[in-house]
Fold this protein.
Amino acid sequence: MDSLSITDNRTGKTYEVPIHYGTFPKYGASIRGADLRNIKVAEDDFGLMSFDPAFVNSASCKSSITFIDGERGILRYRGYPIEQLAEQSNYMEVAYLLVHGELPTKTQYDTWVHAITHHTIVHESMKEVFHGFHYDAHPMTMLISTLAALSSFYPASRNVADPEVRMLQIYRLLGKVITLAAMAFRHTMGLPYVMPDNDLSYVGNFMNMMWRMAECRYTPNPVLERALDVLFILHADHEQNCSANAMRVVASSQCDPYCSAAAAAAALFGPLHGGANEAVLKMLRQIGAKDKVNQFIKDVKERKALLMGFGHRVYKNYDPRAKVIKRLAEEVFEVTGKNPLIELAVELERIALQDDYFVSRKLFPNVDFYSGIIYEAMGMPSEYFTVVFAVPRMSGWLAQWQELILDPDQKIARPRQVYTGVAIRDFEPIEKRQAK
Ligand code: CMC
């Protein structure tokens, strides 16, 4: 076995630490953090820890779901390149692939779609939960809260050790997330909620619940339906990102999947993660015109602003999802008409990619740079974009959850800390205290 020899210069002792590998030795070489604990100055010493705020170089799990090569801009689900899935597959098939590890046969696919389709209806009381929100509540706050509220309808879901119970919750969460997301949209718009239509595709049904007005039957535009389906494929999973990590951390306490998914959605809400798509639109509006782009880039370089939709912890090359989305935008505009913000975004990208600040830091457009422009062209308000990211990410969160539950290496997530506070002091009664 390959190993690392570590010499502790405090004691002169040398330790052999085994090196472990994943599928690709180049990207998966690691040592176990716990092996460092043997490195001590004295017998009663706690042992050495690794200090890694924000997990910039720590693997929290072994995973066989998603592979990213950030240097080369490669993304694969279960080994399949994202470009092939976006071109040839559909979101329901990809969700099956993520959860089960293999693409479905025709029979498996039909059973899967049927089960998810027949779990789209939510309890009538959920309408009351929505009615409790203020008229201008952010749709993500409604989605996060109602995902957690599902837990109160399904207390048996707490039995996370039972594979049948887990699969039932997977069907429910994939089915109901489109309904809750659409209800959040209708609440924002002040429109009555729409029942699911089981004859439509998963994405078509989502469009129906968002956009059906007085017509008897909603018929989704096939170009927009396919575009949204491709966007769902691109957003389905992205290995150990902030929200997947939140899903795993919360679920590691054996919490039910509804509360864990609510925690994951909350992590997604932030502007540095899935909230970036909303932030990109605000940024483009603030810039306003092509001749203001240079001034904005100057502000970014002076650290007065962030170029939202740019940069990534893992990708140090063009995000492969952004390439597909940029192409998809043209197809959507054929139907919806051009979103004028696209020209501003393309100009911003062109100038940024020629600038040494971005080039030297390997900052490229990520998935959120162009997606919001498409959502807006389709008629969604910018506050809603992160909800449209959360809907397909549900399959990724659930795949990560399953893997966590089945992984014998996993325990409750509980990091260590390096304590830097006062060592010890005596309590003082309040009348004797001085302000510090
Ligand atoms: N604009 C300007 N400078 C940036 C940006 C940006 N968008 N992103 C990174 N940098 C700079 C950063 O200031 C740092 O410079 P220096 O080394 O001189 O201090 C350097 O690039 C490295 O960045 P970092 O902040 O150490 O990188 P990180 O891995 O901690 O953060 C990130 C990754 C995605 C949070 C960050 O790039 C960012 O804030 N981007 C804008 C928000 C965004 O688009 N988020 C969506 C991410 S992709 C989809 C998703 O995850 O949901």
Summary: The chain has a mean pLDDT of 97. The longest helix spans residues 163-189. The chain is about 50% helix and 5% strand. Residues 241, 272-274, 276, 300, 306-313, 361, 363, 366-368 surround carboxymethyl coenzyme *A (CB under 6 Å).
